[in-house]
Amino acid sequence: MMKFIPYSFFDIFSAKRVFLIMASANYKKWVILALFVLIAVSVIIVMANSRKRAEKSRTQETRQSSSGPVIDPLAEKNMALDQIKELPETPEGLASLGDQYFEAGRFKEAIDTYEKAIELNPGDADSYNDMGLSFHYMGKSEAAVEAMRKGVEVDPSFQRIRLSLGFVLAALGKMEESVAALQKAVDMNPDSREGIEAKRILDMVKKDL
Questions:
Q1: For position 209, what pLDDT does the model report?
Q2: How far apart are CA 13 and CA 207, in angstroms?
Q3: Residues 71-86: pLDDT tens digits?
Q4: 4-10 and 17-23: which strand pairing?
Q5: Distance from C-alpha of 169 to C-alpha of 200, rounded to nearest angstrom
Q6: Count of domains in the chain?
Q7: Domain span at 199
Q8: Is 112 a member of any domain?
Q9: pTM above 0.70, yes or no
């Protein structure tokens, strides 16, 4: 049985410790890749949170217009979750709820919610991407890859999911598969935010092959 070595880092957005499980054979590779992993994760999360920004903007406007006391950030997140739970179970509403769970670090609930969104809208590659990231942050990177590959199948033109897939494959030490996914992301649009980040990660992964 192959021995596994745990590797941990702090996600600079959530300040939560995330644990990746790596094969010992790939440990040296990850010493080299560790410096750019933090940057890659932060960018992917920013991209994954694209749907969340509108909700944040509305929350900030409400808070700024109020003359009451400042609301605790955690309490505010829970309030936002409670408000979204009241929405009808549409694909969009469920995706938004999943995003809120994701932001709160409640990844199991995020996964369950994204699955419901996908049941109602099987072509929602964005939810496949975010569900995959949730699996990854739970230490279930193989499940993350499976979810992301399904997302690629339903929408081959979705560049961001290929970037996410390449990142998770690298986390698993599957460098050749990571290169293929990242190269595809670059080829789709090298000048986009996703393409630029994919190229940067791709160059670093290639150096380790």
A1: 79
A2: 28
A3: 345 555 555 556 556 6
A4: antiparallel
A5: 15
A6: 1
A7: 1-48+157-209
A8: no
A9: no
